[in-house]
Design a protein that fits this description.
The chain is 38% helix and 22% strand. It has 405 residues and is an alpha/beta fold. The radius of gyration is 22 Å and the shape is globular. It binds NADP nicotinamide-adenine-dinucleotide phosphate.
Amino acid sequence: MNIAVIGAGHVGAALLRQLHGRAERVAREAGEPVTVLRAAVREPEKPRDCPDPVFGYTRDVGQLLQDARVDVLVEVAGGEHWLPALSTFLRSGRPVVTANKALLARHGPVLFSLAREHGAPIRFEAAVGGAMPIIRILLDARRVDHLSYVGGVLNGTANFLLDRIAGGVPYEAALEEARRAGLAEEDPSDDVEGLDAARKLSILAQLAFGTAVPPEMWPRAGIARLSPRVLQAVLHEDERVKLLAEAWRTEDGITGYVGPVILPASAFLARPSGAENAVVLDGNPGGPTALMGLGAGGDATASQVVADLVSVARSRRAGVPVDLLPAEPATILSPRLRARLASPDARTLEEFSRRLPPLTPLDLDTGVVGPLDAGALLALAASADVRLLIARRGGGLLGAPPVPL
Ligand SMILES: NC(=O)c1ccc[n+]([C@@H]2O[C@H](COP(=O)([O-])OP(=O)(O)OC[C@H]3O[C@@H](n4cnc5c(N)ncnc54)[C@H](OP(=O)(O)O)[C@@H]3O)[C@@H](O)[C@H]2O)c1
């Protein structure tokens, strides 16, 4: 099977190394050798820590798309602008493997429908959960189960930072540490503001509920404004805070959010440490199922691209039909949540309380506010510069929809 690769950065270079270093094993599993014909990059002359493709590097992505020798296109470059390139390739009836969460979160339904129409699978295990094979599990689960909940710790960078902040390290120092460990980019906004987790939640919700939810539809709060002092003020001893991204079905539609959540220390979702991720699925008839693993990193991510390539090779030979179900329309609702507040001073809290919608419950002694529409609550806290942690009840796996404290 001949492949072309767009991107040879963290993930792409690790992919080229793995396909070279594990060539025999991959060929045995795939049933045929997997050969990298060409790779497209921004700067073809740049030295790279990986073996070169057979015909080297090019800047010309169009050349890859038109090359009839290419059986499968792998896109590990990132960014929503790859939609036309991937669509063109799928239209030619050839499979695509991608790790691009930004693209899938927004255009997943378009790509899935092209894949069905042209009988060309699109695989994207690497887009969510690093080394955890959550996409494969969801695709299988949806065929037999009625899933009612999907959620978890979906961003390793934020999880690492929260661990350090809860351990007393100030946000900026924790961020520097994450950068030195290769866990945070120079501009960490997508990770710390929860956008990366929101994109992954959109992909998981698409698969779990068959519903397209653009990432910006989830009410969202990040972790950039949290500090050791805030966490100490708000958390009880047997509690932890995690940046959760969760979505569930209600009778009226699909709802969910992304934000820092208080969890009992004993809960499964409180467990991932450092750059780990964890996901819980819930539904009938299986009940909650949990998965935990390393959430990011070139090698962990590339290993899932390799697994996708093996799967594509096998299904091509066996003539397995494309297994992506069509998206169904659904109403997207903002959940009602409670939160515990912390603020630099009593005056800020008081100012915040004045801006709350009439009749919103607020206990200034315990700092507990709500229930209130999550979008309104998070926006109000941000504009009033009040720090909050979402309160959520339940232990064990934490699957069913959150019950506010
Ligand atoms: N890193 C992770 O841990 C991780 C985890 C899960 C998913 N992902 C996803 O994997 C994808 C790649 O991530 P990454 O960390 O490997 O990114 P990266 O290190 O920034 O690499 C991006 C690669 O794409 C190439 N590229 C960028 N624009 C291009 C263009 N217009 N034409 C051709 N090539 C272009 C770059 O070329 P040059 O090398 O010449 O600049 C580079 O090789 C993203 O979608 C990301 O969301 C990454």
